[in-house]
Amino acid sequence: MLLTLTGGSGAGKTTLADALTATAPRVSTRVLHGDDYYFGTPEHGGVWRYDDAGVPHLDYGSPRSMDFDRLTHDADAALATASVVIVEGLFAHHTAPSARCPRLDVFVDLPADLRLVRKIQRKCLHHGFPLDVLLHNYLHHRRDAHEQHVEPARDASDLILDATQPADTLAQEVWSEARTRLRHHLSPKANSAVPTYRYRGAIVDFLNT
Hints:
InterPro entries: P-loop_NTPase (IPR027417), PRK/URK (IPR006083)
Helix content: 40-55%
CATH class: Alpha Beta
Protein name: Uridine kinase
GO molecular function: ATP binding; kinase activity
Radius of gyration: 18 Å
CATH topology: Rossmann fold
Shape: globular
CATH superfamily: P-loop containing nucleotide triphosphate hydrolases
Oligomer: single chain
Keywords: Kinase, Transferase
Strand order of the largest sheet: 2-5-1-6-7
Distance between the termini: 16 Å
Pfam families: PRK
């Protein structure tokens, strides 16, 4: 199964991915982090902005700044070995592996003010990022980018989570929905594309946990 976690910066996607791995019901998991798939240099791709000194800065708020070809390759490789592959990131819902499998697209929802507070705590208080730069970027670009590129995933998601709840609680909600979807996918009426003979033991463990 492919499980994607999409949501705004600071919504708690990485924390939830960790909680899902820690509470996985006797199945193997693999996590792919969207932050690892941004383009690294302008010549390779991405949307870049240049400051007054001519220094390029990647636009992390645009999906065109992500190397989805590499993400697809890694997702296919992970699906060949793990029972559940979790992809988390701003644009995780764009993940489209060539491997045919059931999927669950989750939107991690947290109010904008709480997401901004978390970003300030993480980047400015813990890592020394200039607060004025963060706020300028948020007000002049990242807020609009979120509405344009991230929020549309809400309507396309299978499950919307209230991220003010503890991560362990959210993880249990996700695993419950994953079981429901897998049962439906494997029902006699469903046109299942999963080679169940390969994963029968894992499927049984997952559904019976």
